[in-house]
Amino acid sequence: MTITKENVVDKIEVLEDGQIQIRTAVRVLEDGEVLSQSYIRTTTAPGNDISKFNAKVQAICNATWTDEVVAAYQAKFFHNPIFVLLQHPEMILVNLMQKFKLYAMQHGQMKLLLPIKQNLLRQKNEDYQVEHKK
């Protein structure tokens, strides 16, 4: 009586926009007979790193993801401000600071900015020191 577990990619689907959906069957077997089975599903988008997937999935991604498909998929997101911020997280802090500064100016509360400015300067100084210790 031998109990084993296997993971098998049993379904690969290509969506209209180029995304690839992968279903992996997780099977528990006893002497080759399936005792239980569950599924893990994942999706990957055109242009993503596919090195973690098996050779069959990689081959389908490479065949499907032409330069045109990748460009069209990414173009859907370039006008979405959340996508842009996620691609450039430093912009979140800059944007937040600009709004806070505007609020402080409008409400005569510029003194609120002083601790933040001091904090940023201290952090910048610490980063500089770390860089030059290497």
In short:
It is built from 5 helices and 3 strands; from the N terminus they run βββααααα. The chain has helices at 55-64, 67-75, 81-87, 90-106, 113-133, and strands at 3-14, 20-30, 33-44.
Number of folding domains?
A: 2
Distance between the termini: 58 Å
Cα Rg: 25 Å
Number of helices: 5
Point out poorly predicted stretches. none
SSE order, one letter for each helix or strand: EEEHHHHH
User: What's the overall geometry?
Assistant: elongated
The percentage helix is 40-55%
Write out the strand line-up for the largest beta sheet, numbering strands in chain order.
Answer: 1-2-3
Report on the architecture of this protein.
This protein is an alpha+beta fold. The protein has two domains: 3-76, no CATH class; 90-133. It is 48% helix and 26% strand. The protein has five helices and three strands. A three-stranded antiparallel beta sheet has the order 1-2-3. It is elongated, with a radius of gyration of 25 Å.
SSE arrangement:
Elements: E1 3-14, E2 20-30, E3 33-44, H1 55-64, H2 67-75, H3 81-87, H4 90-106, H5 113-133
Looking at this protein, list some descriptive labels.
2 domains; alpha+beta; elongated
